[in-house]
Amino acid sequence: MSFTRFWWHASIRRRWRSLAGIALLLGIVGGTSLFALAGARRTQSAYPRFLRSSNPSTMAVDLGGRPAADLPAALRRVAQFPEVLSARAYTGFYVGAVVDGQVDLSQEFEALGSVDGRYFDQDIFTPTQGRRPDPTRIDEVAVNEESARRYGYHVGQTLDLATVSEDQLEDPAFLDHPVPRLQIPSRIVGIGLFVEEVVQDDTDRSPLLLLTPAYVARAAQWGTYSWQGLVLRHGDADVAAVKRRFVGLLEAGSPQIFRVTSIDTFHAQQAIRPTAIALSVFGVIAGLAAIVLVGQTLARQVRSQREEHGVLRAMGASPASIAAAAALGPVAAVLVGSVVAVCVAVMASPAMPIGPVRRVEVASGIDVDRTVLGLGGLLLFATLGAVSYLVARRESPYRVQQRAHDARPRTVGLLADVSGRLPLSATTGLRFAFETGAGRTAVPVRSVMAGTTIALASLVAAVTFGASLQHLVSHPRQFGWDWDVALIDSAGYGNTKPEATKALLRSDPDIEAWSGAFFGGDAIDGHNLPLLGMVPGSTVVPPVREGRMILASDEIVLGSATLESLHKHIGDTVTTSSGPLRIVGSATLPTIGQVHGDHTSLGVGGIVETSRLPGYARNRASGNAASQGPGVPADEYGPNVLFVRYRRSANTAAVTARLEGSKDKLSDGGGIMVVPAQRSAEIVNSDDIVISPRLLGGAVAAAALASLAVALTSAVRQRRRDLALLKALGFTRGQLSATVAWQATATMLVGLVVGAPLGVVLGRWLWTRFAGQLDVLSEPVVPVGIIGALALAAVIVANLVSAFPARVARAVPVSMVLRSE
Questions:
Q1: Which residues make Cβ contacts (< 8 Å) with residue 52, sequence separation at least 6?
Q2: Full-model pTM
Q3: How many CB atoms lie within 10 A of CB 570?
């Protein structure tokens, strides 16, 4: 009992403020770590949770442009498939706003009319402002965020909507005096997102307008095309069977266009994953920083109790009892700090998730991730509690005396060699930086340098990763776009004119080459996949990662994610509706295809010879295939898209302008779009991904500087006797400041020399793995200039940070310190 009372009065009561500071430091830094880790899990799970709340279709089928009288029967036939649990459809309309009595079609958007509840009770539209329209009201509409952004729509705005028919648009006289089939003043009651828009490719980005079932009932006869969403009994396992049944309902040679929700989900999760990974890395770094910073503080706290250790030893306490007593206060501080860290993470949780999924988070507000918070809090307590006890054991009186007797400065010889070349303050500062000292003046210099090295390595790794990511975003070839522009006919549903294509593109001296492709899909080993149909030997093709491009009609190139999901390798054979195909390569595929349909993107999909693409019956001409620009087949129907590559010396803007002026010559009537690089959802969200390494780098840098400042201040206090002696020997205030500055500089330089190369290696390794998961070409970049600037800034800031410890050093009272000795 006497031991306990002595320890309580002599140690814990006297140092309770320091212990409270340790608990607070652990609570803030450790709480940041737990907050980031829990936020990463919440961000990654946000889209699946949102999807479940929207009652999503398993797949959607394109019913095409059917007469209004035939549509109900077609919908019923598909809905009665044995695999279908629920079916909801929408019909597209040509709709414009009436301005000054005339139909204004300049604001181009797709009007999607819910036939039987689609977007209301299946694939539910999610308002981010306002609400969903009342399905029984003919005069209420909602618009997507792209419409609001592009045309300035707002909730409460009234649009005098006019529906026109397809035959009206084909009448040249209609454009002079447009008179709508149906005109209804409608109020915008909501702005939001359709299910597939939350995380979206550039290919699918378009203004959309949602019309109610009541509106469709009035305007059904002027509908243009229809898509039906299907909820299947066994999910994706039924997709292939439904596809076969649906194809059986089509006329021979009709396009077969589908959209499978799981493919969209895959791309959405791929797009969100980088942000979640960045948060996880940030959380791990913050956790390590908490352990390093708090661990150093705990060690200093235990070492400051050496006098009490000696008294307890004189009172007969055993080394084990002394260690347990010395660790009691720090362990209690760690326990309180761990609880505070969990509370901080919980209170900050409403800030998650981040990125595009935040607007559709179904459970916003406070979130308690029991797995992360429980395991994380326990890990912090166990690790730092063990550190406290081990340091206490190491600081027993016998061990301290033994180390003091055995301690010999290891850098004396090296510093003696340079002492004649450097000022005395520099030599002294270097000794303070590299020599641990002995007895009461011992300083944990190795742990300080290790912490600085780890922090700087993490900072350089974050910068290297961020530079590689910026390089990816600015080099479309890495994400499958190995050409300058694509010419798409009728949003991917039309066919370009082969002869006109050859005449136009051959005549332009700034066009190096081009190739054509057809859009479609097929069941590959039972998995429905989007495909590009191309002529073997095409010159402008997606970049091949492994193997080669197709050279014969019995070959196929697949995306890397598709290869993995099929458990196939190059050289293996897959089965398709047209027969077996041999896998000859793996490519990074462009994000392009028919609007609303499945399309290739990064690692998903494949490339086959055009005749292997289901649904595109050809009337082959007598056979003069293009000698220049292979990839434009000698068919009556040209490709849906043309990939055009400019010469390196070409003025890109000028060539694109010429194509824009001549593009209508290539279309079969639907209209050509000249589009630049189309980014996948993964690349679209790159802004969030790029910001994350920057935040990580800033946090790591702050942790490193805080660690250095605390360590320098502690070193000055531990070496008060040495500093007092230096002042007594004639050191000026300026020399004392210079000594501390040299100590800070040396510590930072060691961190840079070891940490910078380590960070470059770590950053390149992280990027290579990340690029592999993203299914893009991996081209890591080392930003030498930025790293050099960071190194210079680190040395400068280290000297600035040393200002406060230097002030403490200058204020050391010589007479009082030396008298106490």
A1: none
A2: 0.74
A3: 15
